[in-house]
Amino acid sequence: MKGSGTALSSADFMMSAPRLARRLIGATLFVRGVGGVIVETEAYDQTDEASHAFGGMTARSAVLFGPAGHAYVYRSYGIHWCLNFVCRETGHAAGVLIRALEPTAGLARMIARRHLTDPRRLCAGPGRLCEALAVTGAMNGKPLDERPFRILLPNVKPLVAVGPRIGISKAASTPWRFGLKGSRYLSRPFPVPSVAR
Questions:
Q1: What is the pTM of this model?
Q2: CATH number of the domain that residue 135 is part of
């Protein structure tokens, strides 16, 4: 599955985080020409206890409050970078964490950055994905419809698995994790049976 060539614009991010998280499954993400098909996402909203914006704006979470269509990049546990897409109207913090990609472009560069050769592990998890695509905090706040980013819509509507988010302790049962059903490139399998829509 590859992008159709229709690039997302900033206006395409004016929707709820769960809706965008689902829509991004099957889209293609490139960072300086390196990337692949988005196969796993998670949605977060300021009303949700697991969100960095829950409880109000901080210096770290300010980008999440808008405008939509920008990258929110932060360090997880002070170690790994994580890439999120900001959505919704300005002032309401919401975003989508990009959890996993199926690598399709720039494989040699990803292998060199990650120091491994198994394509299934190159981008299987938000920290691995950012290392493979060389995403850093310098990209925090950058527009997603401009370089170094390029996001293309999928050419067919994918079958999407839905389940609870992972790696969090609060609101962990909220079914805001979305994935390309049957993908071998997920960070973790979905529960069986998972909801497919």
A1: 0.92
A2: 3.10.300.10
